[in-house]
Structures are given as structure tokens and as C-alpha cells.
Design brief:
An 8-stranded mixed β-sheet has the order 3-2-1-4-5-6-7-8, with helices on both faces. Strands 9-10 form a two-stranded antiparallel ribbon. The protein is about 50% helix and about 10% strand. It has 17 helices and 10 strands. The radius of gyration is 22 Å and the shape is globular. It has about 400 residues and is of the alpha/beta class.
């Protein structure tokens, strides 16, 4: 079992990973070149653990144990004795490769070097190493101490024993592991794209305003946040960049096409909660006080449709596009059916696994919905996954009922 862990980068994610490993009993060295950032991480951890004590989640002894398990270092050489080092720095391939190359000169031959990247190729990162077989992706979700899911992504170079060791280690850290193929977006950032993209598409078509779309997904689907609320929470700059990255990485597949609405909001600096203005306007406490943008071209929805019919259409359209994406991820062997469903429920708090949802709605329903959209738009964006068609033909479900 891995006991000595290094973490590169003391930002929110790196600090969170360090807390998770320390809580699990590992001794952790948290590295950053910025002394101020390290001090901030230490102060933040104190506040987080104090709150846990106040809530009776842990006691003072446990708080001190976790704190004492973390040391703060400013030289990569200090990570030389680490069995596992996880990088959590800026999403820039060249910078990550440079750090990995230097780190490898210090650590032992058996040390595992991992990246917390959410979008970059693990194979490309591994290629910077003399021993690329030691490299693997370990993608935590923010905030790392609270989110249950961790995507584990072996590169084509990754040795099988490394995958086995890391999978067991993350489970020992009390996390849910989803093993994903090294493809753009892995599981979550790929499968979740329609939640944002289709909502934006319907807004741009004038089918409904932002608040109606959000409310439809929350009321009928049980989602904790509507897509526009969530984009504002994530930050429109961040969400748009991820969409644009996935779109390019998939050779401009129209299913991942970015939205001009979100691009314009990003350009205007309307980034969401962090700027007080995005799709909504926010007060100083981050509470929504009004919609910030409304359709300037007028809705084209059939005025004879009731509010209930519009809401149902919105929910069904987003849901079936999410299901189609999940089915296609399974079709292309990105991950197992269970890992795909775990990824969406544990990684982004979806109310149900999408493949389980498909079984409940019926595969026939899914195919019919997608075909209706394709017939209406004649865009490849709405092509039905071959797996769904095959399952319909064979009268199969994703899971045994």
C-alpha cells in the first residue's frame, strides 16, 4: 500500500488532494514554488478541519493527525522519496511535461508519477518521461475531499501493475474509482457536454428563457442545479474553454460545438458568480437576483404549447442527448457501463446514472427521441448512437433488471 505521497501545486485542487491522502493515513509533501500559496493552503486546511471539528465530523486528535501528515516543501528534490506524486498545476501540456521530466530525475525507478489533468492527453504527458510506463491520470473533482469520484486514466504506455496499484490506492482513500480510456474529456467532461450545449441551443432557438430551462431540468429531472446556474457556478470562461477544447479534440464533431452565447458572455466578462454577472445577476452573497440576459430575437415556440409541454420538451431533449453521449462512450469502450453511471452520479451529482435512466425511459423511447430530433434538424449532432440502435433491435437493456 502506498504511504508516501507527493502533490505538486498547492492551489484548491492540490491542497484538496493532499487533505484526502493525509486523511487516509499517508504522509504527504505538498510542493509549490510559491511560499505564499503554501501558507495559504496551510491556513485553509486549518479552517476546513476546524469546521469539521465544530460539526463533530472529527475530533481534535484527528485534526492534528491530518495536519501532521502534511509537510510543505519548495523544492522538487524534496519529493525524491515519494512512492506516488500527483501533479495538480495549470492545464498546459508543455509546463506539465517540463515538471514531469525534472521530477523523474529525483524519484526512484519504482515511483509512480500521476497527473490530475481534466482534459489533456495522458499519453502526451507520459511521453516526457524516460519511464513512461510509470505515468497515469488520477482525476479528482472539486472539492476533492467532498466529491466521491476519481477518474483513473491509464495511458497506452501505462504498465498494468501501475493501474492495479493506483486503483486500489484510490479505493483505500475511500473514493469511488471509474477507470476511463485516455480520450478527450475522459468520462465526465465528455458525457456532460449536452447538459450545457443543448440547453444553450434551445435558448438560442428561442424555445424558452434561461430560468425556464433551468427550472425544467431541476423540477422534472431532479438536477440540483440547472445548466445555466451550473455554468455560472463553474465560470463561463472555464466552461466555454472546456467545450472548445473537447470540440477541437474530437475533430470538430458537431455534438460538441460551442455556443456563441457563451462565447460572448466570456468576452464581455460576464463569467458568472465570480463576477456577479453571467446568465444571471448575483448579490454579494452569490444569490441570484435576476436574469442577466434574455432572448433579443423573440421566442419561436408554438404559442399553443402549454408551459408543461415546453418544460417536458426541454427535459426530454437534454436527457436523451446525455443518454446518447453516455451510450456512445460505452460503444467506444471509454469505460464500463457501471463506471459511466458512477462517474455522472458521484462526479457531478446527477440524480441517476444515465444508462440506468435509459433503461427506465426505455431504449425504444431514446431512439425515437433522437430520430425525431435528427429528422427535424438533419444535423449530425443528433445522430443516434449505434449501440442504442443495436440494443433496440435486440430488445436489450444496459443493466439486468
Amino acid at each position: 500500500m502506498i504511504k508516501k505521497v507527493g502533490v505538486i501545486g498547492s492551489g484548491t485542487m492540490g491542497s484538496g488532494i493532499a487533505q484526502v491522502a493525509a486523511t487516509a493515513g499517508c504522509t504527504v509533501k505538498l510542493y509549490d514554488t510559491n511560499v505564499t500559496a503554501l501558507e495559504k493552503s496551510k491556513v485553509t486546511l486549518e479552517k476546513v478541519l476546524t469546521r469539521l471539528v465544530e460539526k463533530n465530523r472529527i475530533d481534535e486528535t484527528e485534526k492534528l493527525r491530518i495536519q501532521n501528515n502534511i509537510s510543505y516543501v519548495t523544492s522538487l528534490k524534496d519529493l525524491r522519496d515519494r512512492e506516488l506524486t500527483i501533479e495538480a498545476i495549470i492545464e498546459n501540456l508543455e509546463i506539465k511535461q517540463k515538471v514531469f521530466s525534472e521530477l523523474e530525475t529525483y524519484v526512484t525507478d519504482t515511483a509512480i508519477i500521476a497527473s490530475n489533468t481534466s482534459s489533456l492527453s495522458i499519453a502526451s504527458i507520459a511521453a516526457s518521461l524516460q519511464k513512461p510506463e510509470r505515468c497515469i491520470g488520477i482525476h479528482f473533482f472539486n472539492p476533492a475531499p467532498l466529491m466521491q469520484l476519481v477518474e483513473v486514466i491509464p495511458a497506452i504506455q501505462t504498465a498494468d501493475p501501475v493501474l492495479t496499484t493506483i486503483t486500489q490506492t484510490i479505493k483505500d482513500w475511500k473514493k469511488v474509482v471509474a477507470v476511463a480510456k485516455d480520450t478527450p474529456g475522459f468520462i465526465v467532461n465528455r458525457v456532460a457536454r449536452p447538459f450545457y450545449g443543448e440547453a444553450l441551443r434551445m435558448y438560442e432557438e428561442g424555445i424558452a428563457d434561461i430560468a425556464t430551462i433551468d427550472q425544467s431540468l431541476k423540477t422534472l429531472g431532479g438536477f440540483r442545479m440547472g445548466p445555466f446556474e451550473l455554468m455560472d457556478f463553474i465560470g463561463n470562461d472555464v466552461n466555454y474553454t472546456v467545450t472548445e477544447t473537447v470540440f477541437g479534440a474530437f475533430y470538430f464533431d458537431p455534438r460538441y460545438k460551442p455556443s456563441f452565447t457563451q462565447k460572448r458572455l466570456s468576452e464581455a466578462g460576464y463569467l458568472g458568480r465570480k463576477t456577479g454577472k453571467g446568465y444571471y445577476q448575483y448579490d454579494t452573497n452569490g444569490k441570484i437576483i435576476a436574469q442577466n440576459i434574455t432572448s433579443k430575437s423573440g421566442a419561436n415556440t408554438n404559442t399553443t404549447d402549454s408551459q408543461e409541454e415546453i418544460s417536458t420538451y426541454i427535459f426530454d431533449r437534454v436527457l436523451v442527448m446525455l443518454i446518447n453521449e453516455a451510450a456512445d462512450a460505452l460503444f467506444w469502450n471509454i469505460a464500463s457501463a457501471q463506471d459511466i453511471d458512477n462517474a455522472m452520479t458521484k462526479g457531478v451529482n446527477y440524480p441517476k446514472g444515465l444508462l440506468q435512466w435509459a433503461d427506465q425511459k426505455g431504449i425504444d423511447w431514446c431512439v425515437a427521441q433522437l430520430d425525431a430530433l435528427y429528422d427535424e434538424y438533419h444535423e449530425d449532432r443528433y445522430r443516434c448512437s449505434p449501440l442504442l440502435r443495436k440494443m433496440k433491435k435486440n430488445n436489450n437493456n444496459f443493466f439486468v433488471n
